[in-house]
Design goal:
This protein is α+β, with helices and mostly antiparallel strands and about 110 residues long. The protein has 5 helices and 4 strands; from the N terminus they run H-H-E-E-E-H-E-H-H. Helices cover about 45% and strands about 25% of the residues. A 4-stranded mixed beta sheet has the order 1-2-3-4, with helices on both faces. Strand 2 and strand 3 form a beta hairpin.
């Protein structure tokens, strides 16, 4: 069940997820509201902004060139969502660059 899994994931965020969440929560980024560990269909996405139809995924090494992730992204994009993916180390080492990329995505039409 996606909602049960979402609760589990919210209780145990990675360091990168925690770091990005401190920047996205409470409408800090351009007034956009983000939710974390949001169920969409059978998936649970890391961060979701419904008003921009934007999904942000933070990936660790286990996601390297994963066909499952590619299929998941295709499924989400086929339903009108834009998906941004960042590596854990990118979020931890370059949070300003990650936020700039997200800001740009928020100002572009879906």
């Amino acid at each position: 069940m996606p909602s049960t899994r979402a609760r589990e994931l919210r209780s145990n965020p990675t360091d990168a997820e925690r770091r990005l969440w401190t920047q996205l929560r409470q409408r800090q980024l351009g007034g956009f509201r983000f939710r974390r560990q949001q169920p969409i269909g059978t998936y649970v996405v890391d961060f979701f902004c419904s008003e921009a139809a934007l999904i942000i995924e933070i990936d660790g090494g286990q996601h390297d060139a994963s066909e499952r992730d590619a299929a998941r992204t295709r499924w989400l994009e086929a339903r009108g969502y834009r998906v941004l993916r960042f590596w854990n180390n990118e979020v931890l080492a370059n949070i300003e660059g990650v936020l700039l990329t997200i800001r740009r995505a928020l100002t572009l039409p879906p």
